[in-house]
Design brief:
Strand content: 15-25%
Strand order of the largest sheet: 4-7-6-5-8-9-11-10
Number of strands: 11
Helix content: 25-40%
Length: about 280
């Protein structure tokens, strides 16, 4: 980040005392965050800030290898229909601040920021390996945080919040969204990546959509729009293995082993079949 002036005023709260954090720079380089009561958080050399110091988390962050697999998949364009659908959602929201909960590499956030040159973005994720990449956009702030905890963001500060295949915290979404702010949640449909299930390593919860709507309803009511993004891109065995490895299987299986299993159940195309549900905050 080089534009120091406006970027110092991020609506980020101290996780210890809830005071607003101020961004510290030295020679146009992000040095960290500090609050008026004396809490400070140093930035890693790669540009992200870990707000979790001293806090226990229940979940294991995605490893560097898993993040690299995700990056290869995203760079291949396999999920370009998802990117396009998110861009349509952002266009109607006209966001000043975009927050990506479960940002991973920041791929979707970066695409939205490129399409909206006056927007800024905050990437929130548990994985340092992902946040190193998410921090690379000049108008982004990357924060290591547990999505199950209250978000380290000010009330009514966020115009657009996106969540792509990540844990959800609807009560916090409502708190941080501005009046009329929007939350866009992307979930897989039953046919998503069904060709890869022959490996036995890719499963899917059957009632994911019903669970999401029930989870969001007490805070937002019904979704204002529902959009399906589908395509059938070609994949190599290596990309097919990456699609499995970048998910939960990557926490307990080896990537080379997954490639061997995929080659035993070869596929040439896969089904991208996801649903984008948008909720609008009500004052």
């Amino acid at each position: 980040m080089t534009d120091q002036g406006p970027l110092q005023q991020w609506p980020v709260r101290c996780p210890h005392c809830a005071e607003q954090l101020v961004v510290d720079y030295q020679d146009s380089r992000l040095r960290g965050l500090h609050c008026p009561t004396g809490h400070s958080f140093d930035a890693a050399r790669q540009g992200y800030v870990n707000l979790l110091a001293g806090k226990a988390v229940k979940f294991t962050p995605d490893s560097a290898q898993m993040i690299m697999a995700r990056e290869r998949v995203q760079d291949s364009g396999i999920f370009s229909t998802v990117t396009a659908a998110l861009s349509d959602s952002a266009a109607s929201a006209d966001p000043t601040l975009i927050v990506d909960c479960g940002a991973g590499t920041g791929h979707y956030l970066h695409q939205l920021l490129d399409a909206h040159p006056t927007s800024r973005g905050i990437a929130v994720d548990l994985s340092p390996a992902g946040l190193k990449r998410a921090a690379k956009h000049p108008r982004s702030l990357a924060l290591a945080w547990d999505l199950w905890q209250p978000l380290p963001l000010a009330d009514s500060s966020t115009d657009l919040l996106i969540n792509v295949f990540a844990p959800r915290n609807p009560a916090e979404y409502r708190r941080v969204l501005t009046p009329k702010g929007r939350a866009v949640v992307v979930i897989p449909r039953p046919g998503h990546l069904h060709e890869l299930r022959g490996s036995g390593l890719l499963g899917q919860q059957a009632d994911k959509r019903e669970q999401l709507i029930a989870q969001m309803a007490p805070h937002f009511g019904e979704p204002i729009t529902i959009h399906i993004a589908a395509s059938s891109p070609q994949v190599s065995p290596e990309l097919a293995a990456d699609l499995i490895f970048m998910g939960p299987a990557g926490h307990h299986r080896d990537s080379a082993e997954l490639l061997r299993l995929v080659q035993q159940h070869p596929v040439s195309t896969i089904s991208v079949d996801v649903e984008l549900l948008t909720w609008q905050n009500q004052p």
